[in-house]
Amino acid sequence: MDEEYDVIVLGTGLKECILSGLLSVDGLKVLHMDRNDYYGGDSTSLNLNQLWKRFRGEDKPPAHLGASRDYNVDMVPKFMMANGTLVRTLIHTDVTKYLSFKAVDGSYVFSKGKIYKVPATDMEALKSPLMGLFEKRRARNFFIYVQDYNEADPKTHQGLDLTRVTTRELIAKYGLSDDTVDFIGHALALHRDDRYLDEPALDTVKRMKLYAESLARFQGGSPYIYPLYGLGELPQGFARLSAVYGGTYMLNKPECKVEFDMEGKVCGVTSEGETAKCKKVVCDPSYLPNKVRKIGRVVRAIAIMSHPIPNTNESHSVQIILPQKQLGRRSDMYVFCCSYTHNVAPRGKFIAFVSAEAETDNPQSELKPGLDLLGPVDEIFYDVYDRYEPVNEPSLDNCFVSTSYDATTHFETTVTDVLNMYTMITGKTVDLSVDLSAASAAEEY
């Protein structure tokens, strides 16, 4: 323990594990510690006994739910875009060799009290019951513009500078209805609220293109993939990567206390009377509570069911986005469902999550619109947790604190935070411009 490290990482949440892997690959000497005796921190996956103990305080779930070890229930359920930043990071670091993925069956959006499959291309838009005939034509024209748009080729811009034109102005050009705008902005571009409408349209167009590219990559029913045995596999994959490149791991280390020198810069971490020296600390908000501020709460329901979510074409894995405007909320609600086909539950069992940013003093009741979509449930658990973001200046204290996980059921915001932190820590950007077609190790989906 009494050694000097370039970086000490505290907590084995996904963000921290990705960073320890990337920093170890860079040749930095990394020590990774966690007060828990398991990997994953807040983003771990629990078996049935662990789930019961955490939410019911008893260690004896009913026998009809099946074997405890057959469950891998994510505490932060998220799907990955098949062509998104996390997949590129996995391929870039070769962590794919530790994991197996499977495509997610369906992607749906809630509109006027019903759920519909999300159309992602001009052809799907023409078939979608979401829109009337004339609206379909307008939407198809908009999709063709997005598909043809190439930032480097002004001929595809149709005279529009998308760094200046707002999304609202771009959409107005095509005369799309509010309901169509709703599913484009929230279910395709994956914006969490409506602020994007008054921001430059380039970001929304890029997000829509990512959705379409991800959908095309595996020709499945959705643009998402998800690891077999749950997301708890991801932190462990990056932890293995770090270990291969010389990173040191210490779990079950109580009271990891960050130490500072006279100038207020981090100089080490003390646990059980021993201090490891370091130049920088990376951690989740729980390790440096005086350097973060609360920015909200997430409320989540976890349901064990014996059937797929109704009206999703019998999908064994699915995401449903409920846009804020459809619910009269300030932010979106998300439904996530996975099952035995991804090895997260015994055969015949499904795990569904309903997640949202809490907006009232009675957060559980806010989830009703999402829960109403599930049908009968065998068991249900509720979880509410505070979200934090760092308020310190890392250049002054060398502390790099991650932001708490949001309510979204996809990973794009998570990985953006990680890559920004990596740049702050190293002064470099991760080059993810790998040739995906050549990355055969990843094509086991």
Automatic annotation (TrEMBL):
Q: What is the annotated signal peptide range for this record?
A: none
Q: Which Pfam families match?
A: GDI
List the Gene3D superfamilies: FAD/NAD(P)-binding domain, Guanine Nucleotide Dissociation Inhibitor, domain 1, Guanine Nucleotide Dissociation Inhibitor, domain 2
Q: State the InterPro entries in the record.
A: FAD/NAD-bd_sf, GDP_dissociation_inhibitor, RabGDI
> This protein's superkingdom?
Eukaryota
What family does this chain come from, according to its entry?
Belongs to the Rab GDI family.
Q: Which PANTHER family match?
A: GUANOSINE NUCLEOTIDE DIPHOSPHATE DISSOCIATION INHIBITOR, RAB GDP-DISSOCIATION INHIBITOR
Name it.
Answer: Guanosine nucleotide diphosphate dissociation inhibitor
Native species of this protein? Urochloa decumbens
